[in-house]
Amino acid sequence: MKRNLKDLLVFCDMDNTLLTAKEGIPECNRTVIRLFTSMGGHFTVASGRPPASIRAALGDIRLSLPAISCNGSLLYDFGADRVLRHATLERGQATAAIQDILTKFPRLGVEVMAGAGDMYVVRANPYTHAHQVDEKISSVACPVESVPDGWVKVVFAADPETIRKVGQYAKTRYYGRENYFLATNSIYYEIMPASVGKASALRDLCTLLNVPLENTIVIGDYYNDLEMMQAAGYSVAVANAPPEVKAAADEVTNCSCADGAVGEYLYKLIEECTAL
């Protein structure tokens, strides 16, 4: 059955889906996103990035829907410049996890995002520095006890082998039930509020907008996108996604992220919806 472009809501992961950290957003993606939204399609992002970093990366791209930020802890309306939903960690449990894990892995980088995604660096290393530079995130360096309340997530940053070991170690420990751990990249491992993620944020936003989930399309590339892809009406994996993510998607692009996978899919969607 032919779909109406104006009824569709596209939620797109950012890093390694819409853009790469070094090269940014391919120009073809920018061009097709503008075309898609000018024709009535609705486009937004679902990212681990805080709002300020999303804004910096998008540049002149205007989102037609609120964004899913901080992996679902924040729903942010860029048009109104305000937070629509703010989920927070249980601070005591998150602090206990940070202190215990740092004892085991003293060279691990640790960032805490609080408030509307403000970054506080508890333990710096080359990976936290690269994170700030690549995503254009300003930060404050301070001990964990000085981070303001309202934590939305914790990010552990290190090389892939260390992150793998951190994940294995965390599975053997108990820090309470109010938070959970999530691998979001080969170099990042995060603590998130319980029952919060990109999928829950997708459902909440559809409820706010009074739009059925079957009208949503999710484009992603990594394991932390899987639940959102499964919750959506239709899911797309970019060509550079791991095999498990591709297998779970309804469709896989021909292009990789760097070659304009998002533009490729959106242009195909425009053609499908406007064909006579």
Descriptive overview:
The chain has helices at residues 27-38, 51-58, 91-104, 126-135, 160-171, 198-209, 226-231, 243-248, 261-274, and strands at 9-12, 42-45, 67-69, 74-77, 82-86, 109-114, 118-123, 139-141, 151-157, 179-185, 188-193, 216-220, 234-237, 251-252. It contains nine helices and 14 strands. Helix 1 (27-38) runs parallel beside helix 9. The strands form three sheets. It has a six-stranded mixed β-sheet with strand order 8-7-6-9-11-10. Strands 2-1-12-13-14 form a five-stranded parallel β-sheet. A three-stranded antiparallel β-sheet has the order 3-4-5, with helices on one face. It is of the alpha/beta class. 34% of the residues lie in helices and 24% in strands.
Keywords:
276 residues, six-stranded mixed sheet, 14 strands, alpha/beta, globular
